[in-house]
Structure formats: C-alpha cells, structure tokens
Amino acid sequence: MSSNWLDAVAFDADGLLPAIAQDHRTGRVLMVAWMNADALTETAATRRAVYWSRSRQRLWRKGEESGHQQIVHDIRLDCDGDVILLTVEQKGGIACHTGRESCFFRRLDGAADQAEWVVTDPVLKDPKQIYK
Amino acid sequence: MSSNWLDAVAFDADGLLPAIAQDHRTGRVLMVAWMNADALTETAATRRAVYWSRSRQRLWRKGEESGHQQIVHDIRLDCDGDVILLTVEQKGGIACHTGRESCFFRRLDGAADQAEWVVTDPVLKDPKQIYK
C-alpha cells in the first residue's frame, strides 16, 4: 500500500476536496462534485468517476442510477493539491441531474442590478425518465 | 439595490463558494479560487475576476500584483447554485502562481500503487519575476 500519490492531495477538514469533470472532447465543464480519499482511489483504479455524496454520506459511483457514467481520461491536481480536475467521456451526454449536458446551464446576463441568470441549455432528457 | 441574481447563489457557511476560471478560447481550466458575495458582485460589475483570498482574508483582484488579470467573458452558475464558472481571457497567459498557464499542471500517470503525479507544463515565467 504505497499510495504515495495520495499524499500530495490536500483534503479539507472533512476529508473532502472538490473535483471538476470536464468533457475530454469539447472542454466543457460538466459538473463539480466532492471526493474523499476512497472516491479518488477508486476513480484512479477503475477510470470511472466516483464521488462522495455529501447529502447521502456515501460513495456515489456517477451513473449508478442514471447510467450516465463518466469514463475518466485524465486526472489532474492543482498547485495547492486541493482541487481535482477530471477529463471524462460523459455517457449519454448528460452530466446534470436536471437532464442537461452540464450543470452550468445558467449564465449571468445584463449588468449590475439588472443582471439575471438565463438558462442557456435545453433539457435533453426528462429527469423522471433518468431516475426511475 | 435589487441584486436578486445574488439570491440564487448558495454561499457556504463561511459565505464562500468555489469559482473556476476557464480559458475562453481553449477551454482549459486555469484555476479554482473562492468568492464571497463582494467578490462575485465586483467580478460581475467590472468583468475582471475578483476572488476572496482565504489566506489573506481579503478581496484578491486577480493580477493586482502579477499583472495577470482575468478579463471575464461569461459567468455561469451550476444547478445547485454553489459553484461559479468563469470563462476568461488570461492576461499574460499565466494563471498559476508557479508561473504556469494553469494550476492543473500535474497529471496522474500509471496505475494503482505505482501511479504518480507528473508535471506536464513548463514554467513560462519565473515567479520571482512575477512577484517582485
């Protein structure tokens, strides 16, 4: 068990760090979730994205319910060691639980006090059809 | 002061949320830092990335020392409202304090216990020349 590469990873006080998933072809940022050491270790071993669900307090193998797995191409670590960046192939083309490609489907339009969040992305699949 | 767009933003217990900066041309993820409401408001108003420095406990106008400002093209919010994604023009082509383009300059290579972080990016400018 000489997992020295894990020593470079700076988990926070809760044993977690944020992980970004980015589409390996388009570069689009798909989502951000959290990982603990187990999630990161399993992600590296299986090349499937595994996160830590803070709401459910358990490992979340992305796609376990939806089928929308993420096949991991690259795993990167930032300079401070406290953020992970995955490049992934997003199965089904849907990363977001709302049925959209990306969780970042709202863009701030307009200036200052008049600004508002505008939805820029269509729902590709009804969440009721994703999570049966 | 009808900044209703801020109401959709879910800051954490410390009043912060992570913000990703992504190159608007290449899609490369450059860095992740933190924002509080003031940082996000100023970012939206000035279209220059402003973060909250947790180490210095003050607003950090990116580039204030290095000159490596980030001109903000898009501001996006994720489905849970707790992560910001900026697409930016990175002045000087250097986002990282190590003098590299991106903070994500380490990639995990190899399998399981033999894996290691490999530096994939050159230092473009000596940090001692950036922070005088």
TrEMBL record, chains A, B:
- The signal peptide, as residue positions, is none
Q: In which residues is Zn(2+) bound?
A: 79, 96, 103
**Record's keyword terms, sorted:** Amino-acid biosynthesis, Cytoplasm, Histidine biosynthesis, Hydrolase, Magnesium, Metal-binding, Zinc
What are the GO cellular component annotations?
cytoplasm
GO BP terms in the entry: L-histidine biosynthetic process
* Requisite cofactors: Mg(2+); Zn(2+)
Q: Which family does it belong to?
A: Belongs to the PRA-CH family. In the C-terminal section; belongs to the PRA-PH family.
Cite the PANTHER family for this sequence: HISTIDINE BIOSYNTHESIS BIFUNCTIONAL PROTEIN, HISTIDINE BIOSYNTHESIS BIFUNCTIONAL PROTEIN HIS7
**What is the recorded name of this protein?**
Phosphoribosyl-AMP cyclohydrolase
Taxonomic lineage from the root? Bacteria, Pseudomonadati, Pseudomonadota, Betaproteobacteria, Burkholderiales
